[in-house]
Structure formats: structure tokens, C-alpha cells
TrEMBL record:
<dbReference type="InterPro" id="IPR033947">
    <property type="entry name" value="ETF_alpha_N"/>
</dbReference>
<feature type="binding site">
    <location>
        <position position="211"/>
    </location>
    <ligand>
        <name>FAD</name>
    </ligand>
</feature>
<dbReference type="GO" id="GO:0009055">
    <property type="term" value="F:electron transfer activity"/>
</dbReference>
<feature type="binding site">
    <location>
        <position position="288"/>
    </location>
    <ligand>
        <name>FAD</name>
    </ligand>
</feature>
<keyword id="KW-0274">FAD</keyword>
<keyword id="KW-0249">Electron transport</keyword>
<feature type="domain" description="Electron transfer flavoprotein alpha/beta-subunit N-terminal">
    <location>
        <begin position="5"/>
        <end position="190"/>
    </location>
</feature>
<feature type="binding site">
    <location>
        <begin position="250"/>
        <end position="254"/>
    </location>
    <ligand>
        <name>FAD</name>
    </ligand>
</feature>
<dbReference type="Pfam" id="PF01012">
    <property type="entry name" value="ETF"/>
</dbReference>
<dbReference type="InterPro" id="IPR014730">
    <property type="entry name" value="ETF_a/b_N"/>
</dbReference>
<feature type="binding site">
    <location>
        <begin position="267"/>
        <end position="274"/>
    </location>
    <ligand>
        <name>FAD</name>
    </ligand>
</feature>
<comment type="similarity">
    <text>Belongs to the ETF alpha-subunit/FixB family.</text>
</comment>
<keyword id="KW-0813">Transport</keyword>
<dbReference type="GO" id="GO:0033539">
    <property type="term" value="P:fatty acid beta-oxidation using acyl-CoA dehydrogenase"/>
</dbReference>
<dbReference type="InterPro" id="IPR014731">
    <property type="entry name" value="ETF_asu_C"/>
</dbReference>
<protein>
    <submittedName>
        <fullName>Electron transfer flavoprotein subunit alpha/FixB family protein</fullName>
    </submittedName>
</protein>
<dbReference type="InterPro" id="IPR029035">
    <property type="entry name" value="DHS-like_NAD/FAD-binding_dom"/>
</dbReference>
Length: 321
């Protein structure tokens, strides 16, 4: 049955994040031929509407307000609830990002709706929209359908292929004026940690270091490999706890969840809490000098050896390609 689906476009530093296009593709499936309405919230985001339409949205509703310049759950939910009130969608799709994880339960509660969070796939089967999501830290997957009420889901970045951009697509980009009541929290300043290179949660290649890198300097060969492959650097909690790198790089149960095309684990033992954050990567390469290391159980390719010898060799070989 065709539905109207509202999909949230996520803006960072003036650009749409990739997950927005993946969410549009998921929304297309959920809509089953119905209308996909993109939503953009922010201070000056109108110009991004066309890009959302080229990626598959049929039209876009924009709420611009200086109180939406920085994300706050309070401000965004006021704006989004106004859009929902206007559009009356049968379904909502957000990215399963830090923003989506914060906003979606709040909106679901306000709408007295359920929420299927962290979906890695969506399909139409047996007359139902079926979402797949990982459970038990990624050790199993469950399939979920909504039998009553709103279909509300968040989609994990890097799992659902975006549609090919079609620059000939056009659609209405309309504005909705929303009076945002006083915010309970105001972001006065954003102090960013200096981060190098590619955004970890959206990277297609992740090179991760564990306690085996032995020091902060030990990440240097990994960074060289990442530069050659256009990848991002990640880490185990072991490496973060040992202060070899910042906690913002931690991958795992209590860190980030990544699903790149290629994950190279260097000097990481493969504790279950680490696997929870990376075991759904498409191709996993493990480099460890212990042939019994648990990481080899999830690896597609395993190299038993010293990472300080193996990683520079890989870098040299990849440079030749
Ligand atoms: P180690 O287990 O010490 O492994 C180091 C590996 O490096 C060894 O396998 C060794 O053989 C290899 N090695 C050493 N030298 C070399 C070399 N020169 N070349 C090649 N290999 C070498 N961990 C996470 O990663 N993410 C999480 O989100 C997370 N959450 C947690 C939550 C809870 C509640 C708890 C209790 C733990 C959590 N942990 C998490 C910690 C987790 O249990 C492990 O302690 C941690 O992942 C180990 O990090 P590691 O593999 O780098 O270190």
C-alpha cells in the first residue's frame, strides 16, 4: 500500500550527510510508490533541497530558524512535529546517527509510536515493509514489520545504497514557518576536536589500531595506509584506554558502529565488545601476531605477523595500484 514517507535530511557544515541519501533510498522502499517528502531543518538550508530531490525525494519541506542553527533535541523536535502536523505522513525515516539516535525516540514518544532503530536493510516482502536490524551486539539479525500505526525507522549509515543522483529530477521545495519556543538548552559554542581526514562513521575504508600499536606514534604506519586508501582511522578501546589515541576513534559496543567496505584491524585481539562495532563490515582484514587471536574468527583475510612489518608492506603495494 503506497504511503507518504517523511525523511529527515541531516546537514553538517552546510552539506547533506551521506546518510541522508541512504535514508531517502530506504524511504522510497517504505513508500511503495507513495510520496517521499524530505525535511530540512536549520538556519540556511533551503539550497540543499534540490540535492535531496535529485537523490529521490519528491518534494522537500524546509524549516529555517536561527534557533535551529545548532542541533538541540528540543528545537528540532518542535520544528519536526510542526512538519509532521502539516504533512500527516504514514511513515518516518531518519539516519541512525548521533542526531537520529537522540531525536527519534523523542519524536516517537510524542507521537505515541513505536520505533525500529538501527535498520541495516529494508525490503517489501509478503505485502509488508520488512526491516532487518542487528541484535545481541550484531551476533544475530531480526526482521521486523509494523502491524499498526506509523512506520518509524532509523537506518544505519553505510548499509542501504543511495539511489543514483538524477540531476533532471525536480520538485517543490517549500518553507514552513515554525515559531520555536524558548529552548531549554542553548548551544553557545561548539569546540571541535581536530580530526584528520575522513569521517569515521561514513568512511568506506577503516584502518583500526589496538593495543598492539604500542604507542601514539605506533599509529603512524596505519595513518599512511589510511591516506593511500582514502580511509579513516579507528581504534579499539584497548588503544584508547592506553591513551594512544582519542576516545572519539573507539569502535565497538561502547564506541562507534562502523560498516565500511573494508575494515583492517591491526593489533586488535577481537574482544566481543570490539566485534559489536565492526563485524558487519563488508570485508575484514586482520593483522595480528597471535594466530589464535579471536579477530581471525570474523576476518575474511587474516595475516599472522607483526603489524609494523605488514602494514608498511601493504601501503607500498596499494601505492602501486
Ligand atoms: P588486546 O586485547 O590487548 O589485544 C592486543 C592484540 O594485539 C593482541 O591480540 C596481540 O596479539 C596483538 N599484537 C600485539 N603486538 C602486535 C604486533 N606488533 N603486531 C600485530 N599484533 C600485535 N573494546 C572495544 O574495542 N570497543 C568497545 O566499545 C568496548 N566496549 C567495552 C565495554 C565493556 C562494558 C567492557 C567490559 C569492555 C569493552 N571493551 C571494548 C574492551 C574489550 O573487552 C577489550 O578489552 C578491548 O577491545 C581490547 O583491546 P585490544 O584488542 O586493542 O587489546
Amino acid at each position: 500500500m503506497s504511503k507518504k514517507v517523511l525523511v529527515l535530511g541531516e546537514v553538517r557544515d552546510g552539506s547533506l550527510r551521506n546518510v541522508s541519501f541512504e535514508a531517502v533510498a530506504a524511504a522510497k522502499t517504505v513508500a511503495e510508490g507513495g510520496e517521499v517528502v524530505g525535511v530540512l531543518l536549520g538556519e540556511a538550508v533551503q539550497s540543499l533541497g534540490a540535492e535531496l530531490i535529485q537523490s529521490g525525494a519528491d518534494r522537500v519541506v524546509v524549516v529555517e530558524n536561527e534557533k535551529l542553527k545548532q542541533y538541540t533535541s528540543d528545537g528540532y523536535s518542535q520544528a519536526l512535529l510542526a512538519v509532521i502536523d502539516q504533512e500527516k505522513p504514514e511513515s518516518l525515516v531518519f539516519g541512525h546517527t548521533a542526531l537520529g539516535k537522540d531525536l527519534s525516540p523523542r519524536i516517537a514518544a510524542k507521537l505515541s509510536s513505536g520505533l525500529i532503530s538501527d535498520a541495516t536493510a529494508v525490503e517489501v516482502a509478503g505485502g509488508n515493509v520488512v526491516f532487518t536490524r542487528p541484535i545481541y551486539s550484531g551476533k544475530a539479525f531480526e526482521k521486523k514489520i509494523v502491524t499498526d500505526g506509523l512506520i518509524f525507522a532509523t537506518v544505519r549509515p553505510n548499509n542501504i545504497a543511495p539511489l543514483e543522483k538524477d540531476e533532471s529530477r525536480s520538485g517543490e521545495v517549500s518553507s514552513l514557518s515554525v515559531e520555536i519556543k524558548d529552548l531549554r538548552a542553548i548551544v553557545k559554542e561548539v569546540v571541535r576536536k581536530a580530526s584528520e581526514g575522513v569521517d569515521l562513521s561514513e568512511a568506506k575504508v577503516v584502518i583500526s589500531g589496538g593495543r598492539g600499536v604500542k604507542s601514539a606514534e605506533g599509529f603512524a604506519p596505519l595513518k599512511e595506509l589510511a591516506a593511500v586508501l582514502g580511509g579513516a582511522i579507528g581504534a579499539s578501546r584497548g588503544a584508547c584506554d592506553a591513551e594512544y589515541c582519542d576516545y572519539s576513534l573507539q569502535i565497538g559496543q561502547t564506541g562507534k558502529v562502523v560498516t565500511p567496505d573494508l575494515y583492517i584491524a591491526c593489533g586488535i585481539s577481537g574482544a566481543i565488545q570490539h566485534l559489536a562495532g565492526m563485524s558487519n563490515s563488508k570485508v575484514i582484514v586482520a593483522i595480528n601476531k597471535d594466530p589464535e587471536a579471536n579477530i581471525f574468527k570474523v576476518a575474511d583475510y587474516g595475516i599472522v605477523g607483526d603489524l609494523f612489518e605488514v602494514v608498511p608492506l601493504l601501503t607500498e603495494e596499494f601505492k602501486k595500484l
